[in-house]
Amino acid sequence: MELKGIHHVSSITATAKNNHYFYTEILGMRLVKKSVNQDDTSMYHLFYADEVGNPGTDLTFFEIVRAGHTYEGNNSISLTSLRVANDEALTYWIKRFNEYEVSHENISEQFGRKVLFFKDPEGQRLVLVSDQHNQGVEAGTPWDRSPVPQEKGITGLGPVKLTVPDPEPTVKVLTSIMGFNHVGSYASSLDGQPDIEVYETGKGGTGAEVHIEHRTDLPKERPGRGSVHHVAFRVANNDELAAWKDKIQAARMPNSGLVDRYYFKSLYFREPNGILFELATDGPGFATDEDVEHLGESVALPPFLEDQRHEIEARLVPLNTSVDK
Questions:
Q1: CATH no. for residue 247?
Q2: Which ranges carry the VOC domain (predicted)?
Q3: What are the pLDDT digits (tens) for 160-196?
């Protein structure tokens, strides 16, 4: 009953085509699954990850075509981290961002690590974090057919930052129910704001941290394109997920019950500041219905949607996801 780290982060895009270009051609991540939102099959659900979509490497996007602007604020997942192998890789990314006119800051330091803040074209708040000194959860392996050199590539998800007006109830859920431990803090970049507190689970390190930002000066975030929908944490197997369901229910927290996402099984609940958490199993994984060599090239549907394939595909705008594009 120990969460192993970050499983995936799911965000919102208004344009799947442009989103696909940025995350595969500029960031060099692999599209490992081109599917649909199982709760609304009119929208794409795209999964970008390492070479095979290992747990802890998946950044996913729901396409909501009419999604408006995000008004940043409290009660949000306000920053998503992407891991790279070392400090040298960040220098490569500065040059690449300049080449592709990606909005970014200079390399800085945060919690003893070199970091590089940047945004995607829809304003998604992102940061590259160096694993130069990481001794926690292992990283993934970038795809060797990426446009980014493999040794410079994105190796997985790093810490997520939660921005909340009252950290105490969120911290209580993380520590008393989910088993996270407090491991330190660092100064906010904003004058007059409290330090950002760091919590970790499992083996710890960049792949297993949640950072809590207490903001006293913000309204509640109004999500839209470029905002984060939820964060998922890794559970070893189905038996452990069932035990987590019992634990969440015993704490009187409303939850989804067990949900079969085909590539993994899940449990959803909201912590007291309204942020959506998911617990997701490590398996069976994305190669369940596609050969590893051809992940993400065709629309993949779980068996319970297969009889609707014709209608579903007719509503989707085609994406050029061939490796020969």
A1: 3.10.180.10
A2: 5-131, 156-282
A3: 999 999 999 999 999 999 999 999 999 999 998 999 9
